[in-house]
Design brief:
The chain is an all-alpha fold and about 60 residues long. It is built from 4 helices and no strands. The chain has one domain. The radius of gyration is 12 Å and the shape is elongated.
Length: about 60
């Protein structure tokens, strides 16, 4: 059972990373590779901590 939970969390993390990476152009963030990479890698923490990021994350996913 712990293996299933770990696998599910990895899949959710990777899916969020991929969706944000592909929709990054629809956000208000500066279009640089380091910025895109950092915002994609830390998406779970930023969604919890930052209201502006949550809005932009939704924009990225709508495409």
């Amino acid at each position: 059972m712990p293996g299933f939970v770990t696998f599910t969390l990895i899949v959710l993390y990777a899916g969020g990373f991929w969706k944000f990476w592909n929709g990054f152009e629809r956000t208000n963030f500066q279009r640089t590779l380091p910025n895109r990479l950092l915002l994609s890698v830390f998406w779970p923490a930023l969604i919890i901590a930052n209201k502006s990021y949550r809005r932009n994350f939704r924009k990225a996913l709508k495409g």
